[in-house]
Design goal:
single chain, 5-stranded parallel β-sheet, 5 helices, 5 strands, 45% helix
């Protein structure tokens, strides 16, 4: 199973968000190998706020790998515990399905693209900056892999 984060906007190369995202992505790699999963990659698409969410949605659609399960990060989505999220990823992996996580821009995800998602995932009822969501998602993907490999990182 390959995991791809498709996100609107680019994290600045020397920003705290970029450093944290890169840290969790690099930590994920050894755990992913133990699970037989492929890499966690990131595709950043241009922020088209001036053209609207529809233009951003088209760029995101092109970034999503063909046949991947689409999990959209959205405030209207389902909140999950970390173990439940890990189990959901395990199920997709067992089915041989790749997963694409979609993070919209500052205005969220276009309703049409949101409707195409296989799952809507929420990090709570509060609205989070889309750059911070990327860090949180990378950490939760890493945490899921550590849960599934029995690593002490997740102590619950």
């Amino acid at each position: 199973m390959k995991l791809t984060v498709c996100a609107v906007g680019r994290l600045v190369s020397r920003s705290e968000e970029r450093a944290l995202t890169d840290d969790y992505m690099s930590r994920f790699t050894p755990a992913a190998r133990r699970l037989g999963w492929g890499p966690l990659t990131e595709i950043e698409v241009e922020d088209r706020k001036s053209l609207g969410m529809t233009a951003e949605a088209e760029l995101l659609r092109r970034a999503i790998p063909k046949g991947a399960v689409i999990i959209a990060l959205d405030e209207r989505g389902k909140p999950m515990t970390s173990p439940d999220f890990a189990e959901r990823l395990r199920n997709f992996g067992d089915q041989g399905r790749d997963v694409a996580f979609v993070i919209g821009g500052a205005d969220g995800i276009d309703p049409g693209l949101r409707a195409e998602a296989d799952m809507l995932l929420s990090f709570g009822s509060m609205v989070w900056p889309h750059k911070l969501v990327r860090v949180m998602l990378a950490e939760q993907i890493y945490r899921a892999a550590t849960i599934l490999t029995g690593s002490p990182y997740h102590r619950a």
